[in-house]
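Appendix B. Worked example

We walk through a single record from start to finish. Start with the input: the chain for PTS sugar transporter, Puia dinghuensis, length 156.
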Amino acid sequence: MIKLFRIDDRLVHGQVTFTWTPAVGADCLFVANDRVAKDEFLRMTLGLAKPAGVKLIIRTVSDAITQLTDGKMKDEGLLVLVDSVKDAHALAMGVGEVRSINFGGLRAKAGAKQVSKAIALTANDILLIRELIAKGVELEVRQVPTDKKQPIENLL
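Next comes the structure step. The output line below is what the pipeline stores for this chain.
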């Protein structure tokens, strides 16, 4: 069961480890990222950042869709992490269970517009966000669980 689906370009870091994981009761961090899945050093680095006693699963985006839809993860308390709107969109379209996506942090990059203190979006990101909204997926911005949810559409 997906407890939280979060977009954060840092993937596993302090906010995820010390605030989100216990707040949502996750017992497994599930990272869907093609680059990390193929890089042993990055996988090891994320493994060092995860909370003690919490599993870490790292898959490519396509493998993540397969694993999240085959029913074998239904008893896990998952905190799903992606580092881009593109990957979030792919998972949300491929995994029916995705009903809400939390925007944590997307740092400024070339061609991106800063829409909040922690989120910069490209024109393509905004198109994908609008598709997710049309599909009925809740898209909310919060850095930490105690922040008030802010709908991403209010920032576009």
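Two observations about the output. Strands lie at 2-8, 28-32, 55-59, 78-82, 100-105, 113-116, 119-121, 138-141, 150-151. The mean pLDDT is 96.
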